[in-house]
Amino acid sequence: DRRESKLTLRPPSLAAPYAPVQNWQHQPEKLIFESCGYEANYLGSMLIKDLRGTESTQDACAKMRKSTEHMKKIPTIILSITYKGVKFIDASNKNVIAEHEIRNISCAAQDPEDLCTFAYITKDLQTSHHYCHVFSTVDVNLTYEIILTLGQAFEVAYQLALQAQRAKPLGAAAGETIETKSSKPVPKPRAGVRKSAVPDQDSQSHASVSWVVDPKQDSKWTLSTKYETTIF
Predict the structure, then answer these.
(1) Within 10 Å of residue 177's Cβ, how many Cβ atoms?
(2) What is the pLDDT of residues 1-42, one digit of tens each?
(3) Any stretches that span the bilayer, and where are they (predicted)?
(4) Structural domain contains residue 47
(5) Is pTM, for the whole model, over 0.85?
C-alpha cells in the first residue's frame, strides 16, 4: 500500500553539506515502487586502476570523450534509476544491458570540462575491480537532474535501511533479509552517514555536481555521502 510507504528524506542540503539545491526531483515513492528513466548516450566504460573519487570519474570522462569524438554512432540507452540501483536499458529494443546495485556504486559526477557528460563508478564484487561508466546527454540540465536523482536514490536506500533496522525484532539473525512496509528487501545499515566538509560555494552559480558514496570495502552498507561543487 503506497499510503504506508511514506518516507521522510532529508533535503539535499541536509543529506550532504553545502548541496547546491534545496529540493529533490521526485517523491520517494517514485524511486521505491517505480523508476526514473533518462535517455542518454553511452560512451563506454573503463577500468579504474587507482581509485581517487571524483578525480577518477572526471579523468575517465575526459578519456572516453576523446576516444568517442569521431564515432559516427554512439549507443542510446535508458538509465532506469531506483533505490535498488541503476539499469542500462537498450533504447531500441528495451532489453536490459547491465544492472548495478546501489551499494556497488561509489561515485557519480559531471565532467567539469563538458557538463553534458557524466559518469559513475562501480565495484565488481567478484574481482574487486572498479569500472567507470561514462554517458552524455543533449542538455546540461538533464545531466544535472540525473546526478541529483542518483543522489536521491542513495538517500532513499539509506532511509529505508534505517527504517528496516528500527523495525527489526531483537535477537533476529544478523544476516537475514529485512522486509520494510513496502515488502522490498533492503540491506542492513552498518553505520550512519558521515558528513564531509566541503568549502561553501555560491549555490546560485552554475556548477558541476557530484554525489560521492564511499562504502568500506568489507561492509555491506556503510555510507559516506557528500555533494561536491566546482564553480566555473
Answers:
(1) 10
(2) 444 457 889 888 777 655 667 789 899 999 999 999 999 999
(3) none
(4) yes
(5) no
Burial status of residue 48 (CB atoms within 10 A of its CB: 0-12, 13-18, 19 or more) = buried
Calpha distance 230→228 (Å, rounded): 7
User: Does 181 reside within a domain?
Assistant: no
**How many Å apart are CA 40 and CA 88, to the nearest integer?**
10
Strands 207-213 and 185-186: unpaired
Here the CATH number for the domain that contains residue 98 is 2.30.29.30
Query: Are 191 and 223 contacting, i.e. CB atoms less than 8 angstroms apart?
Result: yes
- Mean pLDDT taken over the chain: 75
Using CA atoms, how far residue 169 sits from 55, 78, 160, 176, 179, in Å, is 42, 39, 16, 11, 11
Number of compact structural domains in the chain: 1
Residue at 171 is within a domain: no
**Residue span of the structural domain in which 155 resides:** 30-161
* 8 Å CB contact between 225 and 15: yes
Residue 19 exposed, middle or buried by CB count within 10 Å (0-12, 13-18, 19+): buried
Dist. CA 83–CA 20, nearest whole Å: 22
Looking only at the bridges linking them, the beta strands covering 207-213 and 36-48 are unpaired
3-state DSSP assignment of residue 225: strand
Residue 217 belongs to a domain: no
Provide the 8-state DSSP code for 232.
Answer: -
Please tell me the distance from the alpha carbon of residue 145 to that of residue 171, in angstroms, as a whole number.
42
